[in-house]
Protein 1
Amino acid sequence: MTAQTPMAPWFAEVDVSAWIGPYPFRDVPHPDPEVLVRVLARERVRSAWVGWLPSAWHRDPAAGNRRLIEALAPWREVLVPAVAIRPDWPHWEQELTFGLEAGAASVRCYPAQWGLGAGHPAITQLAHACAAARVPLHITVRFEDLRQRHVMDSAGDVPAAAIRAVARAGTGCRVVVSGAGRDYMEEVWWGLTVEERALVHFDFGWMWGPPEDHFATVVREVGHGPFVYGSQWPLRLVQQSRALLALLPHEIARSTPLPVPGVETVSRPA
Amino acid sequence: MVSAPDDAPSLTGAAPLIDVHAHFHTPLSGRADWSAYNASRLDAGHRMGVIAHVASVLGSWGHRSPTYFPSPHDLTAANQWMRDFAREDAEGRAQRVYAYVAVNPNHPEHALREIREGIAQGAVGIKLAASRKADDVLLDDIAAIAAEHDAPILHHVWQDRRREWPGQDASDAVELGRLASRHPRARFLLAHIGGGGDWAHTLHAVRDLTNISVDLSGSGIDRGMMDATIDAFGVHRVMWAADLTLCTGLTKAWAIDAIGLDDAAVADLRWRNAVRWFPRAAFAVSEPGAVA
């Protein structure tokens, strides 16, 4: 068996990008909260922000939010709900209030699956509401690689312009982006003002490590501040972000303390 | 490139890893950082416990001729560079780089000549990418010479290719299976189960063809993929590998430890199957009881 990277007692505070629930396009083993709790303990991650995976493909995510909150109830010390809010749906504000009262750590929005283009005014309204509630708005760029998608999975990726539009809207909303590779992250980052980019955080799990060294390149260029830890469990192997950190060139790993990157800046205040 | 100290423990533990699907760049690649790319691969591999990179160069990687349709001139130069690099890297140390011969079946005489010369000069396998569909008759002589020399063929595969994709004549498992059926004495390594497309299709398409093994490489890290692959093929027909992303390779090496396999099965996946599949390589690794 392996001797893994020497790590602090907790490798990361929060996995911002987890889900529970089935995936519509292929079988995913054990997408259950009790399994996620065990995986987090094994990976030494203290807690996770957890969404209800099917909600991205539901027209109305409200039922999924209720199933999520019910399913997480026994594990709320570790698994914190991340409710899905569709901002062009009637009474979405009430659904947001419901989620916040249930203790949501973040708000998930799936613009591609819900047909909301970059700069859609409903997303801006949701960003305003998230900023007022001091919860981050989490946008998933992609769930799977383009090359393997089911013929019915035709939504496509969320364009980087959509992230830039949220950051430029002047709402003050913090945005978490998962599923972004190097090009996407750079397109967002260098397409924003210093003030705007301070609002955006990236789950870096889709970037490439060596030998292309995309992750090392962006860490060298922009520092570790924009990055948060995420796994996209149960779709992807949870070890990937840890692998990317472990393979950073030694001079970066030595000078850049990455294990809990940026999470405190996007968490809700106690 | 700054690596971890030589005495740092491997990121994947003491057992070796053999990467049966590696690539390097050359001065002909047309990228200024070709040498840094190669150094990064070797450095990260060292940190992960990779003791052998079985590697190919696909011509000029698109600089002078297309990556998946390389010219004979580019292939000859790339193959020679690959063998020279393997030999020069081994000066003063145990060999850690091994060469495939990469060929384009659209140039049959050149392909056979490259294979004969390459194997005579130390190449341990043949690399076929996407210049011609795997079931095309132009590949028959290549498969025959591979069997003759006991050299496995690593074949680029798009898992369940449902249409033609630009820039390549990609094959899927069904097409590779046809070639493997025609050449039962040849051994094939179906490339990168995580390298794009629907891997679940591949598991069904070639599970009964015992002269095909699969490698785990590719940027895809779907949960359930490794488990299903091992269930379909058994641990003796699956090999750990990295291809273009050593980070996902490290993830998979760690995941191998988390899916409930015994130590012997883990060793099979990490290196022992590669030792069996590449008899010409004589990898510098052994353990009590290992088939080497």
Note: The two ends of chain A are 40 Å apart (CA to CA).
Protein 2
Amino acid sequence: MADLLSVARTGIVAANAGLQTTGHNIANANNDGYHKQRVDLNAIGPARHGANRFGLGVSVGDVTRLQDEITLRQRRDVESQAASFSQFESLGTQISEMFGESGYHLDEAMGQYFNAVRASADNPSSIPLRTIVLQRADEMANRFSGLDDRLARMESDMAPQIALEVQEINTISEQLADINKQLTTHYGNDNDLLDRRDLLLDQLASKVTIDARFGNDGEVSVGIAKGQTIVDAAHSHPLRTVVDPQNAQLLRVEFDNQGAGVDITDAIEGGALGGILSESRELLRDTRESLGQLAASVVTEVNAIHTESVDLDGNRGQNFFDPIITDTISNHNNTGTAELNTVIVDGTALQAKAYTIEYDGANWSVDDSEGNSLVTGATLPLNIDGIDITLNAGAANAGDSFYVSPSLGAASGMSLSIDDPRQLALAQAVRAVEQTDNSGSAIAQNITVADANNAALQTPVMIEFTDPPTQYSVIDPADGTVLVAPAAYVSGDVIAHNGWELTVTGNPAAGDRITVEGNADGLANQNLDRIANLQTEKIMAGGNASVEEMYGALISDVGTRVSSAANNAEAQGRIHQILTDRLQNTVGVSLDEEATRMMQYQQLFQASARVIQTVQATFDTMIRSF
Amino acid sequence: MRVATSLMYDHAVSSFATQQKRIYEAQQQISTGLKIASPHQDPSAAVNIDRLQSLEGRMETYQRNVDTMNERLSLEDTSMSDMSNVYQRMRELAVQAGNTALPQESRLALAAEMREGLQSLAALGNTINSQGHYSFAGAQGDQKPIDTFEVSGMVAASINGDNTARNIEIAEGRVMKLGDNVASDFLRTESNNALRTRGELSNTGSARAMSAFVSDSTVFSGQNITISFDTSNTYDVLADDGSILLADQDYRPGETIEYGGIRTAIDGSPSVGDSFVIESATTKDAFTVINQLIGVLRSGTGDQLSAMVDQSLTDINSLQEKLSVAQVEAGSKLNSLEQQKSNNADMNLYLTKSLSALRDTDYVTAISQLQQEMTIFDAAQATFAKIQQSSLFDHI
């Protein structure tokens, strides 16, 4: 009898344990990271009664937690990627939308500028038309710099976010280290602590891709980047942010290796932090560099034509746009006083590269970011990839080095240099005019400027054909002084003087004259269409693409990268969902199931109680029978 | 299979969010009228849109340029037609002048009308277009191409111009030249007995000479002469080799100077040492052609006059031909402008269509899309509300 009573008692205990666990499951049904728990019940081995064996009831074994370690691990990896993609997508969409905003339509501004130039073709002396050209150019320059400024701001706006992510990673690391400590000192399975551990690992994975390894007690060690261990047993190793020495607006991430900082910025992958540090920064950088190349090409090409031309007052053109000058960043270990800067002299040759300039005491050398030496020389300026590296002030000591990325931010430096519409130079610097009373058929053709820097380029001279007209001489129209002694004339020959060149064809008569002079008060526009043609002429990418096409490439690059990030984020999100479904289906709490279990345990309880009642009744019957 | 309760809620949350996003996108398309608001929505279409818009902008400029060219060339055409009428009248006058029986008064009357004709020719040559530039001065549009001055009762003219053309883009890759039709070209023709009159480059005085002409071809020997001022009011006539043909002639501004069948007139104040060279040449300008006839009409013999009338008629015909060539050129430019204008308009239509196909919302699709998304959203909400009502706990 006493046996049966104790058997029934075990049933009660088991029912209690079951209800307790079910209750715990129900309570945590909406708890993220909660793994459903289950009571393991074991039948108590039989007692021998003669030849028979009777079971002694049930014992409550471990309360175990349902697990699906493989799915959990997979989901963590997917989480890292999805977080990285969606972080990138959200920034990329901002960039893409910016290019779609009407105030930032660069192609529209460029089109309007080139069209304004084109529209002034028929009346190059019209001040209103010239004013429009300047206004459009100014608008274009503003859009270039506006776009670049906004992109730069997006880049620097990421700094606080980087700091926040790093701080959160550190907090999670500390918590994990704390959990590790508890796990190794507690006795037995602490299911809820393991849940907490897994949840923290999930959160960490959404910040950065991690490599988690588990010990016997469930303690975890976490590695990131190139194997830097941020959680190791009961210790956490914090990350820290430092200001980028090459750009004070940006942050870099270091791993604290016993006080010494190890830069792991470029090795960080995945998660929100990876999404910011790699893809987002890359896109911003690439976009800004492409914009810079575009701006620099327009600036130097337009300036080259403009300075070769003459303005409405017959003066030689000045720079149309200000030259793009970038200061270099001096290495903080420099001992000299040298300040260097770069001037973009040929935007079409500008590379999307960063350069390191070093001085060894005798020679300057310029290396690219991969450490390849590009050019060396004893003195500055040095020219490389369309930029002049010049010494601005001071002097360098041996070992000094400088860093510069001229294409980055070049677009910000775009600004209009002239403000008077009369200064817009559209006409060729020189013109050749046959004297109206020439008798022969000789005409001057294709006058071009071969040396725009020749000081005497615009000095008026006359080409006079002497008798017999097989010779020509160059004379001074002011007094007839012979400047170039008679030379043989052959039709089609190039005659060059004072930096200009022209071809004379036909048969001159003796005494025929061709005047070559500065192109003043003219309605000429020879160089106007050269500027307008820059819109479609293939001047960039080694002569393979026009400015417009490069802008198209930039837009499609941004668009494609962002849309593929969006697709990837969506795909990873879906995989994440599938894995979550699988995981939840294994370890999640179903309230209906728990309700069933609850009834089951309740009935176990009731049944066990009834057994006790039965024992009681049997006992009473027996007592009464005595 | 077990389904965790939280999963049902999670799914509902994410599907509501997705559905709302789709509804927002469809609504956005409808309200903005644009299929693509930012490049990432369809990168290749975005690039094409930019390219087409840029082309559209250029077409607009080309079309404006076509209109401007049209206006310029029409004006040139009209002026040249009027010049042609002047030549026609001159020819009639020249034919009348050939009548040797005419009394001197009638000849003077003819000469006077010719003189007026030259004034009209100068005025037409100096036509100013709507931009305020001289139509026939080429690139020197701010300077009068025909600078006339009265000398010896005649209208002398120096014709200037710079035929450096302006290139006007009127279509993708098509440039039309403007300003290459200059008076200095078409008001000048090849002729017999043509002379060139030039002040030496070293002259410092303000005197200028009328283009010399051969007034008496029977006397004219073809030799070059130089009129050289040895003082400011006397001149020598020198031969090519520097020998003096006429010495110390009194200079009276504006008065006719005649030597060896060559006639000219010099006006203004010469400096000592200034000289004017008159040499054989091949071309005459329209003013010289008429002036030579006026000169002989006023003071020539009958023989001289009929020889000159013949020469002048030939010259006028040849000038008329030069003018016609220039006019035909302008006319053919006007024709091809007309053609280009309609080509550009076709291109514009094509661009508008292509752009619209790429960029604009297709409302039928967009609205039915919106309907569909909203139906799905409603269904998702309804089913979720239904499912979450059923719980076993309700029955315990």
Note: The domain at 57-125+145-343 of chain B is CATH 1.20.1330.10 (f41 fragment of flagellin, N-terminal domain).
